[in-house]
Every structure is written in C-alpha cells, then in structure tokens.
C-alpha cells in the first residue's frame, strides 16, 4: 500500500509487435524499450537507447493469464528459462543489466528522473587499510570530553534508521557504533609524521587506517575517512578518486564496494575498500579547504575527535573483508538509470525438494522484478527497503511470510547525460514464518509475477551454483523469526 493506503498495481502491458529493436541484456526476449507497459523506464532523454544487436530475436509471448493458483509458475518455456538464467547469472556475477522499466512504483508520485544535489545526495567514502609501522604521532593535549567517553561536541550523526543496506551474502549488518575514548588530536596539533603508503601485508593487528582531518568550519579539526558528496556528471568511481585526491593527496582504485548506506532514496552513501595507487600523502603544510592533513592511524586507536562515529563499523567491515572476503568483489557497473530503483533476486528455497524458486516479472519479457523507490515521507522514513516490500506486497500475502534483504549483488549508475539514478541489485529471501509448510513457494496474486523454478541445468557459471548452494545451506539453518 502507498502511504495513502491505496494498493499499487503495475499496469499490465500489452505485448508489442517486435520491431526488431529491443532492450539489451541477456534476456532471450525482446522488451520494447518505448513500450512502457510497466513503469516509466529508461528511455532516458531523447530516443530510447539503441540496443546492441540481438543474438537471437524471438517472439515476445503474452504470458498465459492462468489463474494465480498457489505459486503460479512460468510455463516450462526453454527460451524463457534460458533468458532468465542468463539474466540471473549476470546479476549474481555482479554485472549490470539495463533498466528499461520497472514493475512497481509509488502511486501518485511523479515519475521524474532523480537529480543529483536536487532530490538525491550520493556520498562516496573510502576505507584504506595498510600495514605499516607508523611513527608514533606527537603527544596530544587531552580534551575534557575525550575522557568522558561522550560523543564529541559535533556528536555522531543520528540516522533516522539503521544506515545500512547489506553487502555480501552473509550480510554483515552495520550496527550503531561504539564511542572511542582515546586522546583527541587537538585541531592545531603538530602534523603527525606518518609515512607514505608502503602496502606491506602484516598481521591484522597492525592495520593502519587512512584518516583525514577536516577543515570545514562545522567540524574543524575532527578526523574522518576520505568522503564527500558526488557531483553531477561524474561516475561513482570518479567521485571516489576525486574526493581521495582532494582530501588525502593520493590516487586510488576501489577494490570493492563494502556496503551501501541509505536514509531513504534521497541520501545514499557508497562505501568502498580502496587502495592507493600513487600520489603523496597530504601533510599539514598542504592544508586547504578540503582537509587539514591526512594520516595513517592504527585501526585500534584511530585519531580523535571523530567527525562522526559512523565510520567505526565501516573500518571493521573493511578489516573483516580483508581478513576473509565474504562476497565477490563488487564494483559499480556504468549503466544509465533515471530513478533510484532495485532489481530483486527474490528467492524461495524448498529444503525438502532442494529447489530454489526466483520471483519473475511477467509484464513484457520475463525478468527479475524492478521496484522504483519513492520519495514519499513513508518511504523516506522507512528507507529503500519499503520499495521492496511494496513490490512484494503487490503479489504476495506478506503477513505469513518472512522477507529478508540479504545483501547487495551489484550496483548500477552512470551519472553522465542526466542519468543520476542508480539500480541496486539486491538479494531477498522469502520464507514462510511457519517452517512447517516450506515445500512450495507462496501463492502469487495477480498476473504480473510468477515463481520460476531455478533448475540445475539452466545455469552455467559456478558463481550461480555457489549462490544456489549457499541459499540451500542457509535455508537449512535459517531460523525464521
Ligand atoms: C561524510 C559525509 O558528511 C559526506 C560529506 O562529506 P563532506 O562534508 O566532506 O562533503 P564534501 O564537501 O562534498 O567533501 C556524509 C554525510 O553525512 O552526508
């Protein structure tokens, strides 16, 4: 339901005669980009994007309107299965797929493209972990509040909700942070004579974190990680590299996305584990409006006062990832999108039959469903998860189901040519609250979605096999609350 209590319905599209053009992507079917049977879609400005030459044009079938019986399923159509399997493998492999339309959007909201620094603020943040013996920074004058273990005067940021979308299949959840009590680095302290990046790998206990000292008036002298707001026209990686150069003096490459934090679709932060590739660490002699200096600090005793304690779980996430990578490397895929949306890999796992089902949108070519995030007060308060629940509520009876967002499989954004939107490819699991009835997927209402049985023989990549086994293993030990 929207926040006005009205049910939301994706408009049922009519199959369009194939014009030979169609969406890019691995699907075995052609989705007419300009036929907006589903939500708006990304024709983007001007004409619909020219799809790359198709491999095997095929008819777009209107799907049997059959009754929405329990777990209505995609007809055993080989082409459909192959197309879906390819789409699923691409997403599981961290790749992107063009967003041509979406299956659910908040009713009554204008479908206007999002615009950076107008209705969305994207932030990039880099965690650099380095093993080096840092020359001990000069003794620092203590400040009264440091010993009281109270938040620094500018205090930790108060998020309206847990600022986290989970990354990786075992989804470390970002909890609220602890309060550091180490001595602060007074704003005008002598520069710490840190060494430049050496990149040696030694035991975790010697991890050093790259921190920058803020020059902004509102947080002058506090310490943080290199971070900043994206600017219109730049890609996510370009923004990350710009911010790190401005604030720390280093060139860098992202190693992987560690997590995406969000406070609704209007504020999203992309957190990366990154590595320096050159440049010279910024010292206090190069202080400017971007930062006062950059220093490496032991992970177990970061510089204080901190601008906000929300970086502590991020540093831990980076250390955990470096110690044991819990998910494949995820880097932003440069694909245009006009809204903040999420492509769902919504799965139901039957342990008894060792079967994994995936929810599929059937408006147009069979596809992984996409839900557009809304900017209503409820969706802002509830976070982007609300858009997932909105889509699932449209086709499932949620009150007897446990829905969990398990992790981020991929991120799509281009930023060029007025395409400021993002598409997050997200893993969602659906299970019955009563574990007794687990063998068949829950009934699907309406005709816009079906459960698609993900057969062993329809996937090729080992990542898909690993993913499927992961789901099956998780389901055996999952305790549905
Ligand atoms: C960490 C953040 O506050 C990002 C902003 O960092 P800066 O205030 O440094 O922004 P720029 O001026 O764009 O560099 C996250 C946030 O609360 O928005």
From TrEMBL:
It catalyses: 8-oxo-dGDP + H2O = 8-oxo-dGMP + phosphate + H(+); 8-oxo-GDP + H2O = 8-oxo-GMP + phosphate + H(+); 8-oxo-dADP + H2O = 8-oxo-dAMP + phosphate + H(+); 2-oxo-dADP + H2O = 2-oxo-dAMP + phosphate + H(+). One of its GO terms (molecular function) is 8-oxo-GDP phosphatase activity. InterPro entries: Nudix_hydrolase (IPR020476), NUDIX_hydrolase-like_dom_sf (IPR015797), NUDIX_hydrolase_CS (IPR020084), NUDIX_hydrolase_dom (IPR000086), NUDT18_NUDIX (IPR042970). Residues 1-77 are annotated as: Disordered. Pfam families: NUDIX (PF00293). The keyword Heme does not apply. Keywords: Hydrolase, Magnesium, Manganese, Metal-binding. Residues 187-319 form the Nudix hydrolase domain. The keyword Ribonucleoprotein does not apply. Its EC number is 3.6.1.58. Its cofactor is Mn(2+); Mg(2+). Belongs to the Nudix hydrolase family. Mediates the hydrolysis of oxidized nucleoside diphosphate derivatives. Hydrolyzes 8-oxo-7,8-dihydroguanine (8-oxo-Gua)-containing deoxyribo- and ribonucleoside diphosphates to the monophosphates. Hydrolyzes 8-oxo-dGDP and 8-oxo-GDP with the same efficiencies. Also hydrolyzes 8-OH-dADP and 2-OH-dADP. Exhibited no or minimal hydrolysis activity against 8-oxo-dGTP, 8-oxo-GTP, dGTP, GTP, dGDP and GDP. Probably removes oxidized guanine nucleotides from both the DNA and RNA precursor pools. This is 8-oxo-dGDP phosphatase NUDT18. It comes from Cnephaeus nilssonii (Northern bat).
């Amino acid at each position: 339901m929207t926040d006005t209590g009205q049910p939301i319905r994706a408009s049922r599209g009519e199959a369009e005669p194939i014009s030979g053009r169609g969406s890019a992507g691995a699907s075995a079917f052609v989705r007419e980009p300009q036929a907006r049977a589903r939500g708006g879609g990304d024709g983007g400005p001007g004409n619909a994007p020219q799809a790359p030459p198709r491999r095997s044009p095929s008819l777009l079938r209107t799907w049997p309107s059959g009754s929405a019986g329990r777990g209505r399923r995609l007809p055993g159509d080989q082409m459909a299965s192959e197309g879906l399997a390819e789409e699923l493998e691409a997403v599981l492999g961290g790749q992107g797929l063009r967003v041509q339309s979406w299956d659910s959007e908040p009713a009554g909201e204008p479908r206007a493209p999002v615009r950076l620094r107008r209705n969305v603020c994207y932030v990039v943040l880099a965690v650099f972990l380095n093993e080096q013996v840092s020359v001990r920074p000069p003794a620092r004058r203590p400040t009264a509040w440091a010993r009281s273990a109270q938040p620094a005067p500018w205090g930790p940021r108060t998020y309206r909700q847990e600022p986290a979308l989970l990354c990786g299949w075992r989804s470390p959840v970002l909890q609220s942070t602890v309060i550091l009590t180490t001595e602060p680095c007074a704003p005008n302290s002598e520069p710490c004579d840190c060494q430049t990046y050496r990149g040696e790998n030694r035991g975790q206990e010697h991890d050093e974190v790259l921190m920058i000292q803020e020059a902004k008036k509102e947080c002058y002298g506090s310490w943080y990680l290199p971070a900043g707001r994206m600017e219109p026209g730049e890609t996510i990686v370009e923004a990350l590299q710009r911010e790190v150069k401005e604030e720390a003096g280093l060139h860098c490459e992202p190693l992987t996305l560690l997590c995406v934090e969000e406070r609704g679709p209007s504020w999203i932060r992309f957190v990366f584990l990154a590595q320096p590739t050159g440049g010279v660490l910024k010292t206090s002699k190069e202080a400017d409006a971007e930062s006062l200096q950059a220093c490496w600090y032991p992970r177990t005793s970061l510089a204080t006062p901190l601008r906000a304690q929300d970086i502590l779980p991020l540093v831990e996430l980076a250390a955990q990832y470096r110690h044991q990578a819990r998910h494949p490397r995820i880097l932003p895929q440069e694909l245009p999108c006009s809204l903040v949306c999420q492509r769902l890999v919504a799965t139901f796992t039957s342990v008894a039959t060792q079967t994994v089902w995936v929810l599929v949108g059937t408006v147009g070519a069979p596809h992984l469903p996409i839900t557009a995030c809304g900017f209503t007060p409820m969706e802002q308060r509830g976070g982007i998860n609300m858009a997932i629940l909105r889509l699932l509520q449209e086709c499932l009876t949620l009150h007897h189901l446990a829905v969990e967002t398990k992790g981020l499989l991929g991120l799509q954004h281009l930023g060029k040519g007025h395409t400021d939107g993002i598409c997050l490819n997200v893993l969602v699991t659906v299970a019955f609250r009563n574990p007794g009835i687990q063998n068949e997927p829950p009934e699907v209402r309406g005709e816009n979605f079906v459960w698609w049985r993900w057969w062993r023989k329809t996937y090729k990549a080992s990542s898909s096999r690993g993913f499927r086994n992961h789901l099956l293993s998780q389901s055996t030990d999952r305790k549905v609350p």
